[in-house]
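Reviewers asked in the last cycle whether our approach scales beyond single polypeptides. To address this, we selected a multi-component target totalling 270 residues and predicted its structure end to end. The input consisted of the following lines:
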Amino acid sequence: MPELPEVETSRRGIEPHIVDSTVSRIVVRERRLRWPIARDVDRNLPGQAISSVSRRAKYLLINTPAGSAILHLGMSGSVSIVDRDAPAGIHDHFDIEFDSGLMLRFRDPRRFGSLHWSRDPASHRLLRDLGPEPLGCEFDGNYLWRMSRGRRVSVKQFIMNANIVVGVGNIYASESLYLAGIHPRRAAGRIAAHRYEVLADAIREVLGKAIRAGGTTLRDFYGGDGEAGYFKQQLEAYDREDEPCRRCNEPIAAIVQGQRSTYYCKRCQT
DNA sequence: ACTTTAGCCTGTCGGC
DNA sequence: TGCCGACAGGCTAAAG
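The resulting structure, written as structure tokens, was:
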């Protein structure tokens, strides 16, 4: 489900409801997520006051003066703010309860999500090697060009590599390359600097637009406030196999790269 | 140091 | 109706 815009939408949906609240307890019903939920989460989170909710890549950070809960939504995870007495459904794996009477509920049918505790999240093993934020100032075409020299991977897999740049998942990779007019199979190391400027701009534009639309709801994504994202209507390539390219009418093609589907226009993308 | 692959899970959808 | 395979928005560890 969630790429950067969906995680950012979730962050904005939950932060106002829990900031300045204090965690009264945490209820874990299922520890077997992508990594088992360690007991130090249960030990450290209760009693802490929430200072902010931030995002790094696709991780949500629930920050307190003593450290942060690091939450990942995996492929099918979502968070919601509900009343403390709301009955738990089958895939509601944990709740973080607050003194306000509300709680943050984590639901994840496929259990690819995760929850960790860290006193210093930036140096946590899951976060420390991540590349720059695509909407931040260290990310630009020159950065992509420098990082890509000598690499033979396809440009699509290159921009989906979180060590290069974070937050570009399968949907927005196709969308960005479409917007930039770059063929997804082209080798990353054989793309000229000026084309990387176009690509970096495209990534920022696509992600920015998607955040403004509240994310992409393909099947079942809802932000923290329960609203469906409506970026799907703006998708140019993703999930549009055989439908006409909106620029040239060529049917959109679908291929597989690294076991993920890629969508692109054979005429517009070179 | 880079690239590729398998695998973690459940739910849904299309074809038979 | 039901069964079966294919596929789904992420990411890591291990192997090559």
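The longest strand of chain A covers residues 92-98. We regard this as preliminary and will revisit it once experimental data from Aim 1 are available.
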